Amino acid sequence: MKILSVNVSMGREINYMGERLKTGIFKEPVKGRVTLHHSSLEGDAQSDLVNHGGTYKAVYVYPFEHYEFWRHELQRDGFLFGQFGENFTVRGMLEQDVHIGDVFRVGGATVEVTQPRIPCYKLGIKMGLAEFPKMFLASGRVGFLLRVLAEGEVGEGDSLERITAGPEKMSVRAINHLLHFDPENFEDARRALRIPALSPGWRRSFEKRLVQAQNRKATDFKPMREAF
């Protein structure tokens, strides 16, 4: 497991549907070592602080192995590191092999996996394809986000050493499928909620699912009339 590229952006203004929009999705590789802070990577800025950045979404990681899939799927070449808006382009960290709650040592920092990435319309802008976020999500090749447990310097070529496995061994791919494509799987929703590292947003989604299921069950229950 290795970082192939560290990518950052301080934000860029673009025209979108007749309006000026600032976005940090246009990441570019940075040479040398940079400091990984608790809320973000040095030299990187999130323009939408409601949906991006913060404690549980400080760093976005994407596997380089998926680049070839998208080249074939989209019949396009010329992809560069940071193509999908990721901070770390990595090798050897596919979604089925990384779990929510896994803790890694990378460079001088320690990080924890908190959730899969949910693609937004800005990814469609970056790729020049409005429907791309839906394609991205359906593929399961979404990457994942990290919380920074200990700050430190990181850089291209750093290895990622897993020092703790997530408590439920629920992979990024599995929990992504659970949220978006398996709404009736309440057992795994409860399992997901047992993972302390799970980000607050994803935790609320699963809690809401279980409450709604319980409310439906209560509404559907009709007591039998006594027979005389």
Strand order, sheet with most strands: 4-1-7-6-10-9-8-12
CATH class: Mainly Beta
Given helix and strand content, the structural type is: alpha+beta
H and E order: EEEEEEHEEEHHEEEHHH
Number of strands: 12
Number of domains: 1
Strand content: 25-35%
Helix proportion range: 25-40%
Which CATH architecture is right? Beta Barrel
Head-to-tail CA distance between termini: 71 Å
Q: Kindly state the mean pLDDT as a whole number?
A: 92
What global shape is seen? globular
| Rg, Å, rounded | 20 Å
CATH superfamily: PK beta-barrel domain-like
**What assembly state would you assign to the polypeptide chains in this entry?**
single chain
What can you tell me about this protein's structure?
There is one protein chain. The protein has 228 residues and is an alpha+beta fold. It has a single domain, classed as PK beta-barrel domain-like (M1 Pyruvate Kinase, Domain 3, Beta Barrel), CATH 2.40.33.20. Helices cover 28% and strands 25% of the residues. It is built from 6 helices and 12 strands. A hairpin with a 2-residue loop joins β2 and β3. It is globular and about 60 Å long. The termini are far apart.
Question: Can you give me a brief rundown of this structure?
Answer:
With 228 residues, the chain is α+β, with helices and mostly antiparallel strands. It is built from six helices and twelve strands.
Features:
28% helix, globular, 8-stranded mixed β-sheet, M1 Pyruvate Kinase, Domain 3, two-stranded antiparallel ribbon, alpha+beta, 228 residues
What is the secondary structure topology, with strand pairs?
Blueprint lengths: L1 E7 L3 E5 L2 E5 L4 E2 L4 E3 L22 E5 L1 H10 L13 E4 L11 E4 L2 E8 L4 H7 L4 H8 L4 E7 L1 E3 L5 E5 L7 H10 L4 H8 L6 H21 L8
